[in-house]
Amino acid sequence: MKGRYYITTAIAYPNGVPHIGHAYEAIATDAIARFQRLDGYDVLFLTGTDEHGIKMLQTAQREGLTPAELVARNVPRFQAMVERFDISNDDFIRTTEARHKQACTELWQRMAAAGDIYLSKYSGWYSVRDEAYYAEEETTVREDGVRIGPQGTPVEWTEEESYFFRLSKYTEPLLNYYNEHPDFILPEARRNEVVSFVKGGLQDLSISRTTFDWGIPVPGDPDHIMYVWVDALNNYVTATGLLNGGGPREAYWPADLHVIGKDITRFHAVYWPAFLMSAGLPVPKRVFGHGFLFNKGEKMSKSVGNVVDPFALADAYGVDAVRYFFLREVPFGQDGSYTPEAIVNRTNADLANDLGNLAQRSLSFVAKNCEGRVPAPGAFSEADATLLAAADAMIEAAREAMKTQQIHTVLATVWAVVADANRYFAGEAPWALKKTDPERMGTVLYVTAEVIRQVAIMAQPFVPRGAAKLLDLVGVAADARGFDRLGPAGRLTPGAALPAPEPVFPRYVEPDAPAKGT
Ligand code: ME8
């Protein structure tokens, strides 16, 4: 093992059903988690749901439910989504669990013991949709007279007794941390926003509410409920057991990577490290703020009626295709747009044609002409050596890109080799060699199958189902699929028997009656 790697998604508000933004975040985080596991790390991968707060309470009231009933109804949909998309999480945390209450109580007590919590009165603007406090100068008044915060959501004037966290005390320590860890916040644009926000000076933060009781009570003063973001952020520590008396997972803290959407960068890159510094706990190594997905370029909203159901996408195109599309098409960190045509075009071209067809054609040829066994290669030509070298080099380029979570670059690297392999296969024309030079034919088929092996190993984090099938077809044992088997170390063994080839990535064809609703 190379060491531990702790990676998390944000935890979603289960105030409705999961949308494609939630699926996207889970898929991207899963790809990174799988990549690290295959690369020899001992990975802990956490996802879950953020179940407290006023937003949840108000949604429940609107639907005539208690908040507990609302979460009992909605959380299983989030768990089902995680399963549907082959997410390989090790744990699913719910902030209503007893372990979490215990960990949050401990966090609060540590921050209080550090002298960082005091009782006062809050008066200012609060956005229920963002569950966020905003300074007056961050708000504007819309044409219709409604005052809104920086994310465009309505804010309401709030005045109540509240506990405060001495965030102002952490202005300098945070700026020092950003300075010493220039890659703490990625992408760089997000980092620059955070640094300039903190440089502007930090106000102490209201961290309790008294007007409702759906949340975790403040230790020693149960009339106060912890601010939902104190509770929510601490989920990452709860899952390690560190604040629950330790245990086998405690060494995973600090997290290596929090994958979140760009709208919640401030909570993760400012409040969270400050809470941890106060509680005497190490700060996470990286926060990556991914972009937003837009349906045909438009923001998804219930009122516009363009919210895409991730289950419907998986049913229509297949899980691998949806995963591949978002990871390949959207440079990780930037916003992305999607249309049904774009999904079909991209996945038919890359998965069905370039990789699927190459595997099907070459492996059927092996089945027919090499007795279904890995052919024995002769001496390698320059073309063979060049293609094998390109395949052998994928992992180093991929590791480099993954250091900064450039998932799309990893896929571009792998599919560049797929393109090389297609050109090679067409150029070497093994079907013509069959009569003129059978030994050369065997070499070409060997090289092609070996490149398919390496491409399939590399593709596992992104298209796990198709990659596993491809690896079955080239006869790679389950324990020989790690990245340590890439390159010359794991070359296919001539003479090894192969199963009968079958298509791996089906081509998407428009059903006669188009699926409704999405
Ligand atoms: O923010 N495209 O929960 P959430 C891409 N509970 N990502 C999107 C998106 C979109 N259209 N819409 C939302 C919360 N997201 C808090 C998090 S973490 C301690 C607490 C992302 O359900 C969003 O940026 O509103 C966030 O990372 C995640 O989905 C959950 O959003």
From TrEMBL:
Residues 374-507 form the Methionyl-tRNA synthetase anticodon-binding domain. InterPro entries: aa-tRNA-synth_I_CS (IPR001412), Anticodon_Met (IPR041872), Met-tRNA_synth (IPR014758), Met-tRNA_synth_2 (IPR023457), Methionyl/Leucyl_tRNA_Synth (IPR015413), MetRS_core (IPR033911), Rossmann-like_a/b/a_fold (IPR014729), tRNAsynth_Ia_anticodon-bd (IPR009080). Its EC number is 6.1.1.10. GO terms for cellular component: cytoplasm. It catalyses: tRNA(Met) + L-methionine + ATP = L-methionyl-tRNA(Met) + AMP + diphosphate. It is found in: Cytoplasm. One of its GO terms (biological process) is methionyl-tRNA aminoacylation. GO terms for molecular function: ATP binding; methionine-tRNA ligase activity. Residues 5-362 form the Methionyl/Leucyl tRNA synthetase domain. A motif ('KMSKS' region) lies at residues 299-303. It holds the Pfam family Anticodon_3. It comes from the Bacteria. A motif ('HIGH' region) lies at residues 12-22. PROSITE patterns: AA_TRNA_LIGASE_I. Signal peptide: none annotated. Keywords: Aminoacyl-tRNA synthetase, ATP-binding, Cytoplasm, Ligase, Nucleotide-binding, Protein biosynthesis. SUPFAM superfamilies: Anticodon-binding domain of a subclass of class I aminoacyl-tRNA synthetases (SSF47323), Nucleotidylyl transferase (SSF52374). PANTHER family: METHIONINE--TRNA LIGASE, MITOCHONDRIAL, METHIONYL-TRNA SYNTHETASE. Is required not only for elongation of protein synthesis but also for the initiation of all mRNA translation through initiator tRNA(fMet) aminoacylation. Belongs to the class-I aminoacyl-tRNA synthetase family. MetG type 2B subfamily. This is Methionine--tRNA ligase. It comes from Blastochloris tepida.
